[in-house]
């Protein structure tokens, strides 16, 4: 994730690098597993955290650009991602490496950029947002975080959850996982902005008698799924799928509902034949497919998914071009993160996932001052 800040005359005497570095150190006292290292667990695909207090990687940088010079480069995919979040040699290994990298870059205008990467095994988007919010609170003088962190990873394992009565839906096996993924080194990208005009226009494509969807997320995903299916030219009988990432903190054990910063997401799938998605009346059909997939997520469904992964391993969601995973990162709160200099000009995903099979929604304000959702798509 990345956040761009303007200069604040009231903070002229303070160095953002020093303030944020000290605040990160204070936050890590509360989130001490993030300062440790991953080690191999008892099973091949399971990991444990050695709470060794070895710390994270913190990078101080200076840039010859101003915020105005960057222009549209602040929106995902960020053109200067490698400069604004340096790839520390060896830091992308799984075991024995820092679990978080934070870089603060001063701009010549007095503004600055905060970029952060965390090992996804440790935290999901909400968990990372909770940590960064704590950093902002410490940077502004707090003595403790407003939300106390909860570890409790063991509560989302099959042996700690009751047996499920959920009627198995073969969502993880339906998409054609034998189709190949585009070469990740040969991708092109384009960001689509969904502002007030676009969100007003999309429902007009539905039949007049159709009940208008209330979720912008569902409508945008329906449009992207249809257009993606058309662009990739699948055979009409080929199964295609979209997996929606859903937070389930309120559908798991009660201890996870306030402060849990691990991964607490499931991936319900909407599946259809490619040819059906490309019919003239497909938008209504696709929106209902996505709504139905999300409506299946209950406490029993969460238990089923945990048991499924416990017995069969993690499903290959990102290994097939016929299916893709979409996450709504626009409401995580990165656009509100304040380290004392005010809210960022842009705060959210840095690269929009950078994958042909993963799409992240980002909150964005365009050059006309319109608030909306930006969706970077890679092919």
Labels describing this entry:
globular; 379 residues; 6-stranded mixed sheet; Chloramphenicol Acetyltransferase; 5-stranded mixed sheet; 10 helices; 26% helix; alpha+beta
What CATH architecture of the largest domain do you see? 2-Layer Sandwich
What does the radius of gyration come to? 21 Å
Low-confidence stretches: 173-178
Tell me the CATH topology of the largest domain: Chloramphenicol Acetyltransferase
Give the proportion of residues in helices: 25-40%
- Enumerate the strands of the largest sheet in spatial order, edge to edge or round the barrel: 7-15-14-12-8-11
Q: What's the β-strand tally?
A: 15
CATH C-level class of the largest domain is Alpha Beta
| Topology order in helix (H) and strand (E) letters | EHEEEHHEEHHEHHEEEEHHHEEEE
Concise overview:
The protein has 379 residues and is of the alpha+beta class. The chain has ten helices and 15 strands. The protein folds into two domains: 2-156, Chloramphenicol Acetyltransferase (2-Layer Sandwich), CATH 3.30.559.10; 163-378, Chloramphenicol acetyltransferase-like domain (Chloramphenicol Acetyltransferase, 2-Layer Sandwich), CATH 3.30.559.10.
Explain how this protein is built:
This protein is of the alpha+beta class and 379 residues long. The chain folds into two domains: 2-156, 2-Layer Sandwich (Chloramphenicol Acetyltransferase); 163-378, 2-Layer Sandwich (Chloramphenicol Acetyltransferase), CATH 3.30.559.10. The chain has helices at residues 16-30, 67-70, 81-84, 125-139, 171-174, 196-201, 216-232, 274-277, 282-295, 299-312; strands spanning 2-5, 37-40, 47-50, 57-62, 100-106, 112-118, 189-194, 239-244, 246-247, 265-266, 269-273, 323-328, 346-348, 358-365, 371-378. The strands form four sheets. Strands 7-15-14-12-8-11 form a six-stranded mixed beta sheet. A five-stranded mixed beta sheet has the order 4-5-6-1-13, with helices on one face. A hairpin with a 6-residue loop joins strand 2 and strand 3 (47-50). Helix 1 (16-30) crosses helix 4 and helix 7 packs across helix 9 (282-295). Mean pLDDT is 87; it is low at 173-178.
């Amino acid at each position: 994730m990345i956040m761009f800040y303007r200069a604040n005359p009231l903070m002229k005497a303070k160095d953002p690098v020093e303030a944020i570095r000290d605040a990160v150190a204070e936050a890590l006292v509360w989130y001490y597993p993030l300062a440790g290292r991953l080690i191999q667990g008892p099973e091949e695909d399971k990991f444990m955290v050695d709470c060794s207090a070895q710390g994270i990687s913190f990078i101080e940088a200076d840039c010859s650009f101003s915020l105005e010079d960057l222009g549209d480069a602040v929106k995902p995919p960020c053109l200067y991602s490698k400069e604004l979040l340096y790839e520390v040699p060896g830091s992308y290994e799984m075991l024995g490496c820092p679990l978080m990298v934070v870089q603060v870059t001063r701009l010549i205008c007095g503004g600055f950029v905060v970029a952060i990467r965390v090992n996804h095994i440790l935290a999901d988007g909400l968990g990372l947002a909770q940590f960064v919010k704590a950093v902002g609170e410490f940077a502004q003088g707090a003595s403790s975080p407003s939300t106390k962190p909860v570890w409790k990873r063991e509560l989302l394992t099959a042996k700690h959850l009751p047996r499920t009565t959920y009627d198995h839906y073969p969502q993880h096996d339906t998409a054609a996982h034998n189709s190949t993924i585009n070469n990740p080194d040969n991708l092109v990208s384009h960001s689509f902005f969904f502002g007030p005009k676009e969100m007003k226009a999309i429902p007009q494509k539905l039949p007049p008698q159709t009940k208008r969807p209330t979720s912008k997320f569902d409508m945008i995903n329906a449009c992207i799924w249809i257009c993606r299916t058309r662009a990739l030219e699948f055979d009409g009988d080929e199964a295609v799928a979209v997996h929606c990432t859903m937070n389930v903190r309120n559908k798991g054990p009660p201890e996870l509902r306030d402060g849990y910063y691990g991964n607490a997401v499931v991936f319900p799938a909407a599946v259809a034949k490619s040819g059906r998605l490309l019919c003239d009346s497909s938008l209504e059909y696709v929106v209902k497919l996505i709504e139905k997939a999300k409506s299946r997520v209950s406490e029993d469904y969460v238990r089923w998914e945990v048991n499924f992964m416990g017995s069969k391993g993690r499903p290959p969601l990102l290994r097939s071009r016929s299916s893709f995973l979409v996450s709504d990162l626009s409401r995580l709160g990165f656009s509100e993160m304040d380290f004392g200099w005010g809210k960022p000009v842009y705060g959210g995903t840095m690269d929009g996932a950078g994958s042909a099979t993963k799409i992240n929604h980002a909150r964005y304000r365009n050059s006309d001052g319109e608030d909306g959702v930006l969706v970077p798509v890679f092919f």
